[in-house]
Amino acid sequence: MKKAMLALLCAGMIVLSGCYGSYGAFHWLHKAIGGISGNKWVKSLVHFIATPIYGLCFGVDWLFINTIEFWTGSNPLAAGDSYYEKDAQGNSVAAVKNEDGTLSVQFVSAKGETANLTLQRDENVVRALDAEGNLVAQYEIEK
């Protein structure tokens, strides 16, 4: 029995060794506690009380969610994550991760011209699709 457990542990370490992910559950909890209204003492107290929950979230991320993210390329908890950036010239890009793993991107130029794209990723290919689903660009990722 001990040998079987040791073999399973070693196999798990080999399989999961490259599974560094985004730790979505852990960061969600941290963000939720950070959003508590009140003074710093209340936040600190809630943070201290939630220490075991942090450990649980970290474990769930490490064992399950990051492994799913590693093998599928998509984090199941990341749906709704967003990104926004505006450069010095006034161009902006906004992106939201969808539940199906795609990324909806909107680019707005300084002149007000807008382009909406959906980015899809398969194994080592990223495709940009327009609003009608037509292929606009494709990029191969070298591994």
Topology:
Elements: H1 2-16, H2 24-34, H3 40-49, H4 51-72, E1 82-86, E2 92-97, E3 103-108, E4 114-122, E5 125-129, E6 135-140
Antiparallel strand pairs: 1-2, 2-3, 3-4, 4-5, 5-6
Task: Give a description of the structure.
The protein is of the alpha+beta class and 143 residues long. It folds into 2 domains: 2-72, no CATH class; 82-140, no CATH class. The chain contains 4 helices and 6 strands. Strands 1-2-3-4-5-6 form a 6-stranded antiparallel sheet, with no helix packed on it. Strand 5 and strand 6 (135-140) form a beta hairpin. Helix 2 (24-34) packs across helix 4 (51-72). The longest helix is centred in the middle third of the chain and has 22 residues, at 51-72. The model has no long low-confidence stretch (mean pLDDT 79).
Strand order of the largest sheet: 1-2-3-4-5-6
Q: How many structural domains are formed by the residues?
A: 2
Mean pLDDT comes to 79
Largest sheet features: 6 strands, antiparallel
Please tally the β strands and state the result: 6
Low-confidence stretches: none
Distance between the termini: 39 Å
Q: What is the helix content?
A: 40-55%
What characteristic shape results from the CA principal axes?
flat
Labels describing this entry:
flat; alpha+beta; single chain; 6-stranded antiparallel beta sheet; 26% strand; 4 helices; 143 residues
